[in-house]
Each structure stands twice: as structure tokens, then as C-alpha cells.
Automatic annotation (TrEMBL):
It catalyses: (6R)-L-erythro-5,6,7,8-tetrahydrobiopterin + L-phenylalanine + O2 = (4aS,6R)-4a-hydroxy-L-erythro-5,6,7,8-tetrahydrobiopterin + L-tyrosine. It holds the Pfam family Biopterin_H. The keyword Disulfide bond does not apply. CDD domains: pro_PheOH. InterPro entries: ArAA_hydroxylase (IPR001273), ArAA_hydroxylase_Fe/CU_BS (IPR018301), ArAA_hydroxylase_sf (IPR036951), Aro-AA_hydroxylase_C_sf (IPR036329), Aromatic-AA_hydroxylase_C (IPR019774), Phe-4-hydroxylase_mono (IPR005960). This is Phenylalanine-4-hydroxylase. The keyword Oxidoreductase applies.
Amino acid sequence: DDFFATVAEKSEGAGLRGDYSKIDAQYVVAQDWDAYTPEQHALWRRLYQRQAKLIPGRACDVFIESLERLNIGDGIPNFEQSSEALFKATGWRLVAVPGLIPDYTFFEHLANRRFPVTVWLREPEEFDYIVEPDVFHDFFGHVPLLFNPIFADHMQEYGKGGLKAMKLDGLSMLARLYWYTVEFGLIQQPDGLRVYGAGILSSGGEIEYCLSSPEPRRIPFEVERVMRTLYKIDSYQETYFVIDSFQQLFNDTAPDFTPIYQKLKTLDPLPANLLLPGEVNLQAK
Ligand code: HBI
Ligand code: FE
């Protein structure tokens, strides 16, 4: 189920959508902002406007505040311009990449407070669903939260943890942590359940579904439980994990994961649609 790991391996050299011919050792390319066409900027605006209608009352406060500061509704953003603002806020920089990059390179960027942003934009017919992350998923979905100092620190720790996990053969477990937090995480705010996961925030349908549907489970975040739970890559999630704060996410993922990897290797992973005895299924209000 480590979709990204598989795709990232396949994309090594071969190159999926992106042009991997002019890359450096860190898979960094020029964004070439002038090469985007008016049609592509128009598609970005359509994607942005679709999400802008959905996020009030659904995206977490940090996302909404940061998105306003970024002011990226008029067209595909210029990474260098936004990177300056981001660096001032939390010391992170954006690096342009051709698409999915190998795990090691990805983690190495995060460990050095560099966030890889895909340069290509989906085709119009991919408006509603895309398999690989494009510039809209990466920039709209992921960049706003990097303006929050605690989340920014967590992402750097995640990168360091990734480099370690590769040595401990813990990658598939760590990928679940990323999936159920950074990509599909929910957060309990005083005024209700909100979204912080990039995969949801950049999705047209899941942002409503994850908060309002009676279908999925919504379980309080617990590191071992998350690392043991399989996930779906091509449908809405069957389970969402809920944190109380970014501080909790940072604190709960700070310990060394070695003992968890060892323990979970002796257990079967859990299917994505399970509620264990005694677990609380938080209902959206
Ligand atoms: N590459 N560009 C890019 N973006 C990702 O989110 C990404 C990646 N390569 C590997 C990867 N994610 C995953 O394997 C890790 O999240 C586990
Ligand atoms: Fe992502």
C-alpha cells in the first residue's frame, strides 16, 4: 500500500508525467513559470474557485489564514515569490520537482526544510480526480500549512524520520502516518471538526464527505494505530484520524519509532474500515 514509494521508484529516471531529463541529484528543476499557458492559469483559477467555495467552515483556521496571505487565486503561483514569504515565516523553502521523486530524495528535502512542489498542472479532463500529485495538489494542498511553525517543525521531523525508517525497513508504516495526517488528517477545533490534510483540501468531493458522511470512521489520532492501518489510494478514505492540535501531532510523533516498527512487524496490518473494540468513532457535528 505504499503507493508513493512504488510510483516514486517507477518514476526514478523513467519519468511518469514529469520531464526528468534535466534534473539534479535532488531532482530539482526550474519551475519555468513563463512556460505556463493562459489556459493552464485559467484551469488553476477554476480549481482554486471550486475549493475556495468549499473551505469555509471545513478547512482548519491555519489553512484559511495562510491561503489568504498567499494570495494565489489568480493563476499558477511563482514558487520563488511564495518561497520568500514562506522562508520568512518558518524557514521553509519550495523546490520545483518534475513529479514524484524517490523516497530518499523526498525525505532529504523535508529534513532540510525544503518542500518539493510538482511543476506540471493536471489536464482539464483530470479536473475532478488525479492519480499523481500535481502543482495544485502540492501547492494549494500542502504549502499553506507550512506557514504554521509547529506543523513546519513536524514536517521536518517527518523527513528525518523517513531517512531513518528507510534504514529500519519501516517505510510502509511511516507512509501510513503521512497518509493519515499530512494527506488526509482531520483536526478537532473548538468550533468543530476541520480538515488539515492536503489530499482532502485539494479534492472537490472528499472535503464534504470526510466531515459529513456517516460512512467513514473518525478515530482519535494514535500513532501505533495509524501506522498499523492500511489506506486506500483511489477512493475516499474509510477511516480518518483526528488530532486535537498540531502540538499533539508534533509531540506524539517525536519519540523514536524503532520499537513501534519492531512491534508492528509482528502484527497484521489493519484494514482501513475497522473500528477496534473500545475505540471511539467521533461523529461530525
Ligand atoms: N515525491 N514529489 C513527491 N511528493 C511526495 O509527496 C512524495 C514523493 N516521493 C515519495 C513520497 N511522497 C512518499 O513515498 C512518502 O510520503 C512516504
Ligand atoms: Fe501530497
